[in-house]
Design a protein that fits this description.
It is built from 2 helices and 4 strands; from the N terminus they run H-E-E-H-E-E. With about 100 residues, it is of the alpha+beta class. Bound molecules: zinc ion (2 copies).
């Protein structure tokens, strides 16, 4: 009684063109389409490049919107510089000098 395990063909042929399923869009793409990442077990990111591009664009957009909203909600008033006496708009609320 021979084990069926031994004669079973490999589920997937791993050739020169290793493929990987993207954890974001679910598409199977060549490994070259995944950015390298040392922390990952296979040395590749789990997201394909396309998904990274989309995610980065979305992040930047969200970030900018939030920043603008925060500015509108809480504008920092103009201040007079303690060293040179010139009016300036501080970046931080506790900024008392036009240049740090
Ligand atoms: Zn993807
Ligand atoms: Zn100044």
């Amino acid at each position: 009684m021979a084990s069926a395990e031994l004669s079973r063909p490999p589920e997937k042929v791993v050739g020169r063109m290793a493929e990987k399923r993207c954890g974001k869009c679910g598409e199977i793409k060549p490994q070259d389409d995944f950015p390298t990442r040392r922390a990952s077990p296979d040395g590749r990111d789990s997201w394909c490049r396309d998904c990274h591009v989309v995610a980065n664009r979305g992040y930047r957009q969200r970030h900018r919107e939030r920043l603008n909203a925060a500015r509108r909600r809480d504008p920092i008033p103009e201040r007079t510089c303690l060293t040179c006496g010139q009016p300036f708009i501080p970046v931080r609320k506790d900024q008392n000098y036009c240049r740090t």
